[in-house]
Structures are given as C-alpha cells and as structure tokens.
Prior knowledge:
Blueprint: H1 2-27, H2 31-50, H3 59-73, E1 80-81, E2 84-85, H4 90-104, H5 107-115, H6 117-141, H7 146-157, H8 163-170, H9 175-200, H10 209-233, H11 239-263, H12 265-296, H13 301-312, H14 316-325, H15 334-355, H16 360-373
Helix pairs in contact: 1-2, 2-3, 3-11, 3-15, 4-10, 4-11, 5-9, 6-7, 6-9, 6-12, 6-13, 7-9, 7-14, 7-15, 8-9, 8-13, 8-15, 9-10, 9-13, 10-14, 11-15, 12-13, 12-15, 14-15
Amino acid sequence: MNQLNNVNKTAYFVALVILTSYIGLSITGYTTISGWLLVLFFITLSIIFRGDDRLKGFSFTTMIFAVVAAAMYYPQYFLHLGSFKLSALIIPFLQIIMFGMGSELSLKELVTVVKMPKAIVVGVVCHYTVMPLVGFALASLFNFPKEIAAGIILVGCCPSGLASNVMSYLARANLALSIAVTAISTLLAPLLTPLLMHLLAGKFIEINFWNMAWDTTKVVIIPIMAGLLFHYLVRGKLKWLDKLLPLISMTTIGLIILVIISAGRESLLKVGGLLVLAVLIHNITGYTLGYWFSRLLGFKERDCRTISLEVGMQNSGLASGLAILMGGIATIGLAPAIFGPVMTVSGSSLATWWHSRSPEEEKRIATLSTEDIS
C-alpha cells in the first residue's frame, strides 16, 4: 500500500511539474511549445485517475480536456490529412458509435420497458420537452449569431447519449432504466429531432424536416439495427471484440470533438465564454428539472437520479454530425462540440457525488436490516 501511495505521489508530482512548465512557457510567450505541455498534463492526469477508484470517473473527462487543448492550440493538424478533410470521418464515426449502442441492446431492454413503463415515459417526455425548450430560451436570451443559436437548440433536440448510461452506473442509479430511456429516445430521434428543430430553430435558420429526418435515420437507426443484428449473430463469440467496441466508441467521441473544435476555433474564440456559460446552464438545468420532476411524481431516488442524468446528458456527437450534414460544422456544430466536454465534467462530478451517497431506499433497507438483527 505504501509503495502504491509513493507511486501516486510521484505521478502527481510529475503532473505538477508539467503544469508549472506550461504556465512558465505561456507567460514567456512560448505558446507553440506550451500547448503540448498542457495536452500532456491532462493525459497524465487521466492516467493517474484511471488507477484511482475514487477518481476513475474523471479519467475520460480529463482525456477530453486534452483533446480540447490540442484543438485550440493546434487546429491546423486536425482539419486536413493532405487533401482529405478530416470532417468527412465524423459521420462514419457516429455510425460506429450507434452500431456499438445497438450491439449492447437485447431483449432485456424490451422487458425493461414492460416492467417500468411509467418511469420510461416520464424520462423520454422530460428529455424531449425540457432540453429543447431550455435550449430555445437560451438561444433567444443570448445574442449569438443565428447559426450558433440554432446549434444550442439542436443539442437540446437530440436524444440522450451513451455517457448517461455510464454516469447512471457510477451514480448508483437505475442502470436498466437508463439504458431503456437512451434506447427509446434514440429510436424516436428521426421523428422528434427534426420536428422540434423545425418548430424551435426555424426562426434562426431554415430547417428541412425531411432531409433532417433522413440524415438522423442513416446516422442512428440503420447502424443501431446493424448493431442489433451483430448482437444476436456474433456478440459473445468474439470476446476481444466485445471489449473493444466500448473503447472504440469512447475514442471516436474524442476524435469528433477534436475535429469540430479545430474547425470552429475562430468562432469559438469570439463567443467562447458566453457559449460555454449558455451550454453549462442548459446542461445543469436539465439535471435539475429532470430530478425534481421525478421527485414530484413520487419516483424512487435511484429512478430520480437516472432521469436527471438522462435529461441533462445529450448525444452531442449526433448533434455534431447533424450540424455537419446541415453545412455548419464551424457554427451550428460549436454548441454540440462544447456540450460534450461540459456534460462529461458535470456528469462525472454529479455521478461521483451521488456515488458517495446511498439512495434513500437503500438506506431504509439497511436500517430495517440492522433493526431486525438487533
């Protein structure tokens, strides 16, 4: 144990040295070099957190920070590979993520829908009302350029993402409910996302309902169906592939954020502070309203936590892909690109806080068990 503590202390010391060097070089004007040190600092933290059970939930978060730092300091490296535009990879990346989601689904999720219909309906309805309306309110309140404002609404109109399932697990929430709400909100996306965008974002930019419906279908539904087929034909037979798919999904999320922030860097520098604030308000409002609506309806604490995370955590990757298909990678795509890292930080923090606090019903069961023993 002492040896492990010494290793952790040494690793944190190395991270501190890297951060100090970054600050020193930045102050003296060596920004060309200092940016790489900032990237290295976040990667080092991510590795350290990965080996600490208390901080493991923040490992992916800090890796995303490394991605954002690289995109902001060195965007020129992540726009083209020779004459090939790297943005062309984003849609295939999204389809890979959706394929991975489909490969995780099974009859268990369908059984979950039957067992918890009320909670699932509330989760989906809250998701497709709270986030779109809050996004519209923020887009109207902040004086952003029209396409950036439309990007905020687009984030709110997308389904919940796979990250919400991970956070539900960490938060001691109802993981089965989380998976079911994510799956159903995703399957409804080809209808509800373009419909809500047409109703709410139409005042900012022109929205073609049928084009967006088809774009959402080919990015979401077709890969998910392929993943379902994979689940029943192959999954379990190739153990190494089962372990590899989640890693591929996490990597592609990072690459999507890297390319989009690199493309939108100049616009982000102009509206960055306000846009981050708007995205943060959007995200936290989703958590708050999702939780308290559930409490008012009398749900158990575990279910309230789940719905809170499902409402507040959006599929920002899908929003980014749709922004590209709409021709707005550097404008409409900015809010989704920022929402991803913000959501990862806030979701990790909330899940870690909840993890240290047992749901109320678990406490009651523990108390009753103690009383029975005595």
